[in-house]
Amino acid sequence: MWNNRIIKHEKDDIVWYSVHEVFYHENGGINGYTEDPISIVGETVSDVKTQLEMIMKDIKKHEVIDASTVKFEDWHDEEK
User: What is the DSSP secondary-structure string of 19-37?
Assistant: First the structure.
């Protein structure tokens, strides 16, 4: 499973936020997220609007992830 989430980043006392695809273990724990923020690209204006609506739905539903404190689940650990 995956969704879009806002991730808070910090480096050298500079803080920024970006939207990433976040991937989950079957127990709901976070396995990882895309290294780069997502890009919004579509073949039509409607495609772009649909993607933006999905992103907004996801980020309204889920809390911001702090990249410095997120705990990742093991992809292969089925017992967690």
Answer: EEEEEE-TTS-EEEE-SSP
Does pTM top 0.70 for this prediction? Answer: yes
Q: Is the dihedral of CA 1, 52, 6, 15 positive or negative?
A: positive
Residue 75 confidence class, pLDDT cut points 50, 70, 90 = low
Query: Do the beta carbons of residue 55 and residue 38 sit within 8 Å?
Result: yes
Q: In sequence order, which residues have a C-beta less than 8 Å from that of residue 61 and are 6 or more positions away? A: 3
What CA–CA distances, in Å, run from 59 to 11, 13, 55? 23, 25, 6
| Confidence category of residue 18, pLDDT binned at 50, 70, 90 | very high
Q: What tokens appear for 54 in the block?
A: 């999905």
